[in-house]
Amino acid sequence: MKVIRVVAIALTIGIGTGSAAMADGFKDCTKLDKASWKPASEAEAKAKALGYEVRRSKIEGSCYEVYGVKEGKLYELFYSPEDLSLKHTIAK
User: Fold this and answer.
1) Residue 10 to residue 15: CA distance in whole angstroms
2) CB within 8 A of 46, min separation 6: which ones?
3) What is the pLDDT of residues 12-39, one digit of tens each?
4) Which of 14, 44, 54, 81 fits as disulfide partner to 37, beta carbons 3.0 to 4.6 Å?
5) Beta-carbon neighbour count of residue 62 at 10 Å?
6) d(CA 54, CA 88)
7) CB under 8 Å to 59, separation ≥6 — which residues?
8) Domains (ranges, CATH) in the chain?
9) What DSSP string describes 43-88?
10) Residue of 24, 27, 37, 29 lying closest to 75 (CA atoms)
11) Distances from the Cα of 2 to the Cαs of 5, 6, 7, 14, 16, in angstroms?
12) pLDDT attached to residue 21
């Protein structure tokens, strides 16, 4: 029983640190309350205006994270929901 518990704890710790290591997103875009955020569709429109084919978007921390493809390469674009300024870009 004790061995199983130790293995379970080790797996939990490994999974937890693995998840943190995989999260490479930019998370700090605004301190503004979510009720005051501009719509996510406007962040997607800004990405499209820059020439990205938008695949999807989501909220990451206090940012809008927009996944887009440009010239065959995948990008993650992080927009401030406060003013829709582009805060960070990650090429995948």
Assistant:
1) 9
2) 79, 84, 86
3) 444 443 333 345 568 999 999 999 999 9
4) 81
5) 19
6) 16
7) 40, 65, 81
8) 34-91 (3.10.450.40)
9) HHHHHHHTT-EEEEEEEETTEEEEEEEETTEEEEEEE-TTT--EEE
10) 24
11) 5, 6, 9, 18, 21
12) 36
Residue 1 has pLDDT above 60, yes or no: no
The separation between CA 1 and the C-alpha centre of its own chain, rounded to angstroms, equals 40
Cα 18 from chain centroid (whole Å): 16
Cα-to-chain-centroid distance, residue 9: 28
CB atoms within 10 A of CB 31: 7
38, two tokens: 């501009």
Q: Given pLDDT bands bounded at 50, 70 and 90, which one contains residue 62?
A: very high
By the 8 A CB rule, do 46 and 75 touch? no
